[in-house]
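[Help] Beginner question about ligand-bound structures

Sorry if this is basic. My supervisor gave me a protein sequence and a SMILES string for magnesium ion and asked me to "get the holo structure". I don't really know what that means in practice or what format the answer should be in. Inputs are pasted below exactly as I got them.
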Amino acid sequence: MAPVVTFDAGQTLVDLDLDFLARRLGERGVEVTPTRLAAAAPAAWKRFDELNAAGIGHPWKQLMTTLLAGAGADEPAPLVDWLWDEQPRANLWRKPIEPIIALAKELAARGVRTAVLSNSEGGLRALFEEIGLAHEFHAIIDSGVVGIDKPDPRIFAHTLEQLGGRAEDAVHIGDSWTADIIGALGAGWRGAIYYPSRANQAPAAVPARAVVARDADEMRRALTAFGI
Ligand SMILES: [Mg+2]
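Answer (accepted):
No worries, everyone starts somewhere. Holo just means with the ligand present. The predicted complex, written as structure tokens, is below.
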């Protein structure tokens, strides 16, 4: 049976697109440049990480509020509510992370079964079609469609059913320690590759069958070590 490699979406295959965000804000008459958003981003992510560490799961609105306020938007709250409502059809995480996309293509080209496996809002396939990447993967698994979020092992099992693969031949790659790494290992997958998108994310201890990779080449080496 063919090996399986799955990728998380946000901060693994696609990043927050600050140019797109600036254009969306412009539609609401708010002039905030991508440069100012980029300057405000580190503080916003720091806040996001602090809230996550405090157990406040998925603090999307707090991330955005800090980002927009930091970039100089006067009244971020209604804008953030609007962006959240729009997120299913105008996902802000749409900037391809090219080296990881290239790795996914390379794996598919040599016979590995690949999928996107993401905690998302139900519009992930439409997004990947819009940005021209849907055809690069054998399956796109969106928790908002399946009705089960990572790290629940059932969404990992569902992914394998869709791909026609086995847990012992499967490796998942993602940037969320809990959702991606604990999730894949808990589902009995051969391995999990942690791709920390921010410096503070490295775990204190890395369990067996998990590897930290900071770029696509480190992912290639980890996959080789997993026999893929
Ligand atoms: Mg992610």
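A couple of things worth pointing out: Residues 8, 10-12, 174-176 surround magnesium ion (CB under 6 Å). The longest strand covers residues 113-118. Feel free to follow up in the thread.
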